[in-house]
Backbone:
């Protein structure tokens, strides 16, 4: 039976008053993931829509012979999408239930409950002059309440609207501390449910990204020509979490998740801005500790923490500058582990496709009025920019992959002819062994270098440059909070190390092949060569299987073996694969890049021996 993974990367849109709606959407995705887990584990007892998803997976298996596993391994969100994305990621990693959140949202996410105590109307006479405003909004012909609210609840909604309009003006009506307690209560309610097991297979990491807006901003340096450097203020923040695919699974501590949820959903004008002091006070009031506070603030607010100003950071809604965070989701695709065939899909959750929060015109063909122009410019247009740019970025990524595959297909006949000429019938008359495979590889490598001529030299230097880039990325990530300028300095130090090892010297890479030292360096560090080679073999296996010239069980066995080898190489390109010794050394990599490269290669090779097969690269 053939296995396949449907991997979903969720991008959760933010918007006013959409938290409860988005909870319903993310809850269905959670049920799909639960149905998939139970399907593969043989568990029973599903009900409701989860049973429907289970039946769908069983039907796919019966009709196509594919055991499909549906999973969510990337979640990004802003504002209402961010807060629900946090709860969903927590449920996926911990295996706990989202069910308690439904009742909590319906009972506690209420205007009367969320109104700050010091901003509620004290009596019916409070702001009596504002009552006509509420009446006009709620009872005028064609009003929104009559159009969208069920008849039996309209009077309740009108009463809530009246109290809301008569609350204090020119201050956020909803209380920040109350919202923080609501989030902590929600996380506590989830923690009180049984942990049934993660909704991801072992070793598959879950990444969560939540956008936040730094109100005052932090300085970022830009390198130019004239002047050489300028400083600008950056307001965008991304709070990143990962369970790293390791047990015990946890996407983050409860205070960390509460920090992210409260910050990303601090909609301007509705909630006051958020600061870490508000969370500290709430945790102290509840008697709950936060053991990882300092480490989290150093990671979440690196610039503020570095100057001892993390407590003074003022954070507001993440949707102000990044309402549909595709970027982090796309970046997270790099080096995902793959142990079986994968079908990747981005799922963009937009609760109101094609609709705007604020109408931009007074009527058909008429220009917008004074207030609508202001509201549209400050809120509606920036928050509801189309996602076309994001989709075009994904399309360009896919187009590059397709172009490279066409290139490979175009040169395949010549490559196969060269292999046939070099080996004749050797490959068919001799049983492969590890030693023979190594000899054949060396012979093919030498032949390819000679036939490529000076093009092989450029190929070798391109490989060197790629290794330096990949090593700099991994070593910088191992420091915990990589700085772009520090990463660039590290990249330069690694280039100097490559030069010191004479890997770029004349003759190290030539039409006669690579020197012994260059070959050893490539074997230690050129993971992408191995990944490319294994993926090429996988594509050939698919073609052989479609041609019907090989028994299906043999194809499946070969595919499983290749995916197992591929997973080991992809794991080694992720910083979270490595332990504390290399992390400590990474902090000094800029000063001793040669030792850092040697340690990185040793860590990769040593763990290969314990965790999987080694495939030479050259």
Residues:
């Amino acid at each position: 039976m053939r296995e396949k993974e449907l991997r979903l990367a969720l991008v959760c849109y933010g918007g006013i008053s959409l938290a409860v709606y988005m909870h319903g959407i993310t809850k269905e995705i959670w049920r799909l993931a639960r149905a998939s887990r139970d399907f593969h584990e043989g568990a029973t007892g599903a009900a409701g829509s989860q049973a429907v998803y289970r039946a769908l997976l069983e039907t796919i298996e019966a009709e196509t012979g594919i055991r499909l596993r549906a999973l969510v391994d990337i979640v990004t969100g802003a504002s209402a999408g961010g807060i629900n994305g946090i709860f969903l990621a927590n449920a996926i990693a911990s295996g706990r239930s989202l069910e308690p959140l439904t009742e909590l949202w319906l009972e506690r996410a209420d205007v009367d409950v969320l109104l700050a105590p010091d901003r509620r109307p004290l009596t019916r006479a409070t702001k009596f002059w504002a009552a006509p405003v509420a009446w006009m909004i709620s009872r005028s012909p064609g009003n929104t309440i009559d159009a969208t609210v069920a008849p039996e609840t309209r009077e309740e909604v009108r009463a809530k609207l009246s109290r809301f309009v008569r609350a204090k003006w020119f201050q956020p009506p909803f209380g920040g501390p109350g919202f923080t307690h609501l989030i902590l209560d929600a996380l506590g309610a989830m923690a009180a449910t049984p942990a049934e097991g993660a909704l991801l297979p072992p070793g598959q990491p879950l990444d969560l990204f939540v956008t936040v807006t730094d109100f005052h901003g932090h300085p970022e340096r830009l390198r130019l020509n004239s002047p050489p450097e300028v400083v600008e203020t950056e307001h965008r923040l991304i709070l990143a979490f990962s369970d790293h695919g390791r047990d015990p699974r946890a996407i983050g501590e409860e205070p960390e998740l509460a920090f992210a949820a409260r910050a990303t959903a601090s909609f301007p004008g509705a909630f006051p801005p958020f600061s870490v002091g508000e969370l500290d006070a709430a945790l102290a009031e509840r008697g709950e500790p936060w053991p990882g506070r300092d480490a989290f603030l150093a990671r979440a607010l690196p610039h503020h923490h570095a100057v001892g100003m993390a407590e003074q950071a003022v954070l507001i809604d993440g949707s102000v500058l990044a309402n549909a965070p595709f970027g982090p989701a796309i970046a997270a695709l790099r080096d995902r582990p793959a142990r079986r065939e994968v079908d990747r899909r981005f799922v963009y959750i937009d609760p109101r496709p094609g609709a705007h929060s604020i109408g931009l015109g007074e009527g058909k063909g008429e220009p917008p009025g004074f207030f609508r122009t202001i509201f549209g410019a400050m809120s509606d247009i920036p928050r509801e920019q189309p996602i076309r740019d994001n989709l075009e970025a994904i399309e360009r990524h896919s187009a590059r992959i397709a172009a490279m595959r066409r290139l490979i297909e175009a040169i395949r006949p010549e490559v196969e002819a060269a292999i046939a000429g070099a080996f004749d019938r050797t490959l068919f008359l001799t049983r492969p062994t590890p030693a023979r495979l190594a000899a054949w590889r060396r012979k093919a490598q030498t032949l390819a270098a000679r036939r490529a001529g000076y093009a092989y030299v450029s190929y070798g230097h391109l490989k060197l440059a790629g290794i330096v880039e990949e090593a700099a990325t991994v070593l910088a990530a191992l420091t915990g909070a990589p700085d772009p300028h520090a990463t660039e300095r590290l990249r330069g130090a690694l280039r100097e190390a490559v030069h010191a090892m004479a890997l770029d010297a004349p003759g190290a890479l030539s039409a006669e092949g690579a020197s012994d030292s260059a070959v050893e360096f490539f074997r230690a560090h050129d993971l992408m060569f191995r990944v490319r080679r294994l993926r090429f073999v996988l594509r050939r296996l698919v073609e052989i299987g479609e041609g019907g010239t090989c028994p299906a069980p043999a194809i499946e066995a070969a595919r499983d073996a290749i995916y197992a080898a591929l997973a080991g190489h992809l794991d080694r390109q992720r910083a979270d694969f490595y332990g504390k010794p290399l992390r400590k050394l990474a902090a000094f990599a800029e000063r001793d890049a040669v030792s850092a490269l040697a340690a990185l290669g040793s860590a990769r090779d040593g763990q290969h021996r314990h965790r999987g097969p080694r495939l030479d690269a050259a």
Notes: The beta strands are 2-12, 66-77, 207-223, 229-242, 315-316, 341-349, 509-510, 513-514. The chain has a mean pLDDT of 83.
